[in-house]
Amino acid sequence: MQYSVGVEYALHCLVYLIDVPSNDSIGIKNLAEFQGLPETFLSKVFGKLSKAGIVSSVPGVKGGYRLSKSPEDISFWDVIEAIEGPNPIFQCKNIKENGYLYRKNCCQAPSFCTINLVMLSAEEKMRDDLRSKSLSWLNEELDSVLSKQIREDTRKYFSKSNT
Amino acid sequence: MQYSVGVEYALHCLVYLIDVPSNDSIGIKNLAEFQGLPETFLSKVFGKLSKAGIVSSVPGVKGGYRLSKSPEDISFWDVIEAIEGPNPIFQCKNIKENGYLYRKNCCQAPSFCTINLVMLSAEEKMRDDLRSKSLSWLNEELDSVLSKQIREDTRKYFSKSNT
DNA sequence: TTAATCGGCGATTAACTTAGTCTTCGATTG
DNA sequence: CAATCGAAGACTAAGTTAATCGCCGATTAA
After folding, report:
1. Selecting from 3.40.30.10, 1.10.10.10, 1.20.120.160, 3.30.559.70, what CATH number does the domain B5-85+133-160 have?
2. Which ipTM score applies to this complex?
């Protein structure tokens, strides 16, 4: 039970897109190479991000991706939902309906499940936290954690390799 | 990305163990039959619950399982952890260490990952909620939600089939 | 004491999911 | 028009999950 690597790939990549001017873009190839990720797979991840309206694509030579909204309006949860889909972590199989009581008297079994409700509300607590952290927040966080040199090198890498 | 059905099976079964007197027990066969679950699989689920100290097993004929602590001291999270193991939902692959900067200068890359920390803290919010809901809480909740008839029938089923 | 009933455990299987690849396509640039 | 990009679907290999099977040791009732 865990999130797919796509989420991790996406979040790491999106940070690099923050500083890209809105008339420019970064190609999948660059992003993949810089981070040592499989290019074709990353391409699929960005397809999902694109469908979710988080990034927009620029086709053709010199094409690539850029953020399609302000980094303040992109939360961790937006990214996870884009990659993982809308399904909750806990999916009730409604096992009550296979049970003895249900077989004995069909209409007595309740159609909703208390256990499921508990799970959904717990997940909601997690999502709330994830919704409160935006891409721009992450960017500032990284500024205070990473050395100036690393951040400089990163920006240099993407600016020179896409002009 | 979702919890295994084992968690659902376990929670549903544990409710039925609450009213079992401490010198008695309920067999896997009964629990499985009552809920229409595969017996052999449920047996493995209870193996994990047993290892986690949530239930204790009574071997031999007329054997079965009973709670090994008070239902107030068994939380939803205890059950999930017993079945799913200790691993967090988001597992960082540390993709930074495959990247260009790391290859360029090994010692500059940070060994911890901000994204991972955010994920872990969000999960912790969910776990806190899950830790606050105990088996006895669930039992009371079910009392107020389910009809008296259903609860009565359930108790009757397990008391008569194990004597 | 012996047969039947229970949990414990490991090997196995079938279905499904995931990470990743390959290939074809259409759009863009030079 | 050719090279380079993203889009998309088919495909594959590996891993996971749900479930089964068989064998064991413990226990109990006849």
Report:
1. 1.10.10.10
2. 0.90
